[in-house]
Every structure is written in C-alpha cells, then in structure tokens.
Amino acid sequence: MSLTVRSERPWWRDAVTYQIYIRSFADSNGDGKGDVEGIRSRLPYLKTLGVDALWITPWYPSPQMDHGYDVADYMDIEPDYGTLDEAKRLIDEAHALGIKFIIDIVPNHSSDKHKWFQEALKAAPGSPERERYVFRDGKGKDGELPPNNWQAIFGGPAWERITEADGTLGQWYLHLFAVEQPDFNWDNPVVREHFEEVLHFWLKLGVDGFRIDVAHGMIKEPGLPDELKGADLLTAQKSPYFDQEGVHEIYRAWRKIFDSYPGNRMGVAEAWVSKESLPKYIRPDELANSFNFHFLDSKWDVKELKKNIKESFELLTTTGAPASWVLENHDVTRSVNRFDQGLKGGGVDSPLKRFGDTSKFDIKRGTKRARAASLLMLALPGGAYIYQGEELALPEATGIPKDRLTDPRWKLSGYTDPGRDGCRVPLPWKADVAGSYGFSGNPKLGDSDSWLPQPKHWGTLAVELQEKDPESTLNLYRAALDIRHKEAGLGDGTMEWIEAGKDVLAFTRPGGFACYVNFGKAISVPAGEILLASNPIQSDVLETDTAIWIRTK
Ligand code: NOJ
Fold first, then answer.
1. Mean pLDDT of 465-477
2. Which of 130, 162, 274, 491 could bridge across to 236 with cysteines, CB 3.0–4.6 Å?
3. Residue 374: enclosing H or E segment and its boundaries?
4. Which residues pair with 267 in a beta bridge?
C-alpha cells in the first residue's frame, strides 16, 4: 500500500468522484432533458461541493432506449445533450477548476441503431459484418429455438431472432441486456481495434479516464454453453458470460493506452463480481479502480457493514490498488430508502425489493442513516464515488405514475419491477416549482415536459434551501470533503479498527483521526475534539444512527 503524500500519488487513489446522470442534472435549453451546457453552468456548484473528479454517464448519440447505454456512435455527442465543441469546453473548464473528468464507455454492447449492427442485419450469415456481433443459428428443426438458455439481465431470453434480407426467419443475436442492445463479439480483433480507437479519441480530447460499463462482460465462454443457474452477480458462482478470464487481456491492453498519455489516465470497472474476483480488475497492469459494490449491497447493519468493509478492503488491497467505496448510483435504490427499509443494493426485481414497504418508510430515519453512512464512507481508506443528489439526501421517487416509467426493466420484467427511474429524477436546484424546481433553464417547463416527473416535495430538498441551512446534508458533504482534503491521513492509506461495543463501528486513520458510527443505543461521545458529526451532538451524546469524526490527539 502506498504511504506517499497525497500530492505525489496518482489522483485516483484518493479522489472523491461525483457521478452526473446527464439527463437529470441540469437542462440549459429547456427541453426537459439535462445537457452538457447545463453541467457547465453548475461547475461552480461542484467546485464548492469539493469533489475531485466528475464521471458523466453516456453522452453519445443514442436512441436512449436505455438512456445512453445503447450507443449509436462512440465518437460523438448526443444532439439532445450538445456538441463535441461544448463537451471539449466542459472538460477544459473542469480542468481549469482542478477537477478531473471521466466519461462512461460501453464496450459490451451497442445500440441496434449503430451503423455496424445495421450493416450486420443486411449482410449474410458468416459475413465480416455479422462477425462484429454474436450471431448464431438457432436450435430445433428450423432454427426456431434460441442457441442456448441464457436470460437477459433486464428479463426475457438473451437472444433475438432476425428476419434475413430475403424475408425469411434467420439467425439469432445475443443481447445480455435489452433487445436493442446487441452484444459485440470481442473475439473479433476488429472490435478490439475499434474500442482502442475510441479510447484514443477521447483521451486526446482530454478526458482523464473511463467508467467501464459491464466491465465483467465482453468475453463469453467458448462454445456459449448453457448456464446452470441464473446470474447471481456478487457471489463466486461461475457464469459463461460474465467474469471470464479473457477480459483481463483487454484491460492490460487498455492500461498501456492510458499510460501512453500524461496525467495518470485511468479506468474504473463496473464489475458486479464476487469479492474474490474483484481484485483481478485492479492489478497493477489493469484498471485503477473498481467500484466496491459489496459495500453498496450492505444493509444498515453493523455486523454486515463491518464484515463487508473488512473483507473487501483486505482483498482489494492485495493488489496494491486503492478501495473505491460507493453507496449509490443510477441503477440502485437511493440509500435513504435502502437504509431505512433494510434493503440491499443489488439483485432487485420487484417493487418490494426495490422500495421496501413504502407505507412504513420513515424519511427522517432514512436520511439520518444515509448521512451517517456518508461520513463512514468518506473516512474509509481509498477513493469514493458519490451520485448526484446523494449530497442532498434525495430519497427514491417511489410514486412515479406507471405511464411515465421509462426504464426498459419495467417492460422487460413483465411490469413487475418498476425499474430504476426512481433514482434518476431530475435534481431540485430551486425551492419553487418553476422550471421543474430549477432543473430547467425554461421557467415554464412543467412536470409533463420534463423527461421524468419530480415528487411534489422535491422543492424542500432543493440546493437553494440546503445552501442556507447549516445543518443540511449539502453542508455536511461540503464540510466532510473540506476536512478530507485537509487531513493528510484521509483518502488512501491505512486504518485500524477500534473495539467500541457491539453496536459501534469504529476505526482510526493516521494522524490522530477517528470515525465512530453508532448503530445502537445512545452512547457518550468518544474522547477528543469533534471535527464533524452526521447529526447535531447534544449533551455529549452520540445518538443511534449517527457518525462522528474525532481528532484524537
Ligand atoms: C450498467 C449501467 O449502469 C446500466 O444503467 C445499464 O442499463 C447496463 N449497464 C447496460 O449497459
């Protein structure tokens, strides 16, 4: 593990990266969708918040079937979001503020509207055009059955049969996600070359790194054998389409490309794999970071959190890489709801598992726990990723009318899983409802014009109000990030656990810093100077569901 001073180690060992879901962040042109200029207008907000880097979700031209994770052209910007010139200006202005810039790359699959897929549909079986994707003949007498039993992550079979150019029913293609997201054939060097070209394109434009979508995908087991059991991503179970050894060869090649540019360019893996497999993605010659989804998947439970932190931290750091903590992203239920309702983050397929019992949801308790979890995360060794709105303690929007749901999961689950829209609702910037609570530059933009409706109480959580309230979650985040920058012992480095009772999770960091999180009955505030607490401290009492940062000497 690196014991160097922060300024001497690669930025990605310590960084707090803020994830921007571009569609919902800020809408500059009043069309009800966020955009590049919207982000640019909010750079001062992000600077004041104190984040070190930004990650922008896919901004490429896309039919938006999966809101950008269905890419039609990897070297351009979605016209609804802006232009390449605007993107370049945004990157440059972020850099001028000392903020790094990461973009999403989606290498497992493209959109079915991608030029290559359209060419593949028109070409003959076995042609070079078909070889860029995973086409197979079907089983059965007339090829009427899919080539194997794989199921798509969003629901339904992972294979779709096409009609050939002559009008007859023909081959099948693989789509591990939606039908409109055909999987690339990574055994084909042409695909590898294309993505290397894409990396160079954006690296030259100035990006500092890539968040790699489905980083455990791409390579499939030779022969595409049936799978024995449905995917259970975070366990050690083997899958014929995820977490194959061959994927590491790709990252070794990509790492060489990153290292051929100055400034510690990097990749962060979105790999939903077992604790044992995760470190492989961040070996010294592969990627820099890998989201710790085991942390995100933990319930608000002292034993479970401690076990997950301990195990994943120990395993991750065997490679010398830093841990990358994460509590939220655009795919999981907001932590305010999860922690209140005892929910896990991953493996969601029904309203109950996604939202819990909404009639029993206690926003005050959920917020208190989410705030404590944030201080816990920001005190742990390594970097952290926060998702837009997490700094406002936004809850999940659980009441979106069914006819407004847009996530493909809703339809593909047979209308059983409401999907991920509830954590993707546009941000409230202003208290007043005008312009969708300040999300849009168009003050006349109403609920029905915004791509997703916002809950009625959204204004009470607005940035504008939270800025003025010293006890708001926004100000808690600002204070925490400020301390994190000043404390040499925070960020990358070591930690020591402290025994402080069965309901308390506690540890120290070098330089006289300690973090305590109380999950049980009220206890006395530990000795030392209070640097920050997730909840106001009265009469020297550390209440339940509260975290505190202490200067111990
Ligand atoms: C993971 C992304 O985070 C998610 O939003 C997307 O639907 C799938 N990958 C497919 O690209």
1. 98
2. 274
3. helix 363-379
4. 210
What tens digit of pLDDT does each residue of 365-422 get?
999 999 999 999 999 999 999 999 999 999 999 999 999 999 999 999 899 999 999 9
In ligand 1, which atom is closest to the CA atom of 69?
11
Q: Is the per-residue pLDDT at 427 higher than 50?
A: yes
* Residues present in the chain in total: 553
Active site residue 357: no
**Dist. CA 184–CA 181, nearest whole Å:** 9
* pLDDT at position 235: 73
**17 CA distance to ligand 1 middle (Å):** 18
Kindly state the tokens that stand for 41. 């207008």
**Which residue in 78, 270, 407, 545 is the catalytic one?**
270
Sheet holding 135-136, edge to edge: 135-136, 169-174, 159-163
pLDDT tens per residue, range 501-512: 999 999 999 999
Q: Convert the pLDDT of each residue in 205-261 to its tens digit.
A: 999 999 999 999 999 999 999 998 766 667 767 899 999 999 999 999 999 999 999
**Is 227:239 a contact under the CB 8 Å cutoff?**
yes
Provide, for the chain, the percentages of residues in helix, strand and coil under a 3-state DSSP scheme, each rounded to the nearest 5: 35, 15, 50
Q: Which residues line ligand 1 (CB under 6 A)?
A: 66, 69, 106, 177, 213-214, 270, 330-331
User: 119 CA distance to ligand 1 centroid (A)?
Assistant: 24
Q: Which domains does the chain have, with CATH numbers?
A: 115-174 (3.90.400.10)
How many Cβ atoms are within 10 Å of 291's Cβ, its own excluded?
Answer: 22
The CA distance from 177 to 231, in Å, is 13
CB 107 within 8 A of CB 218: yes
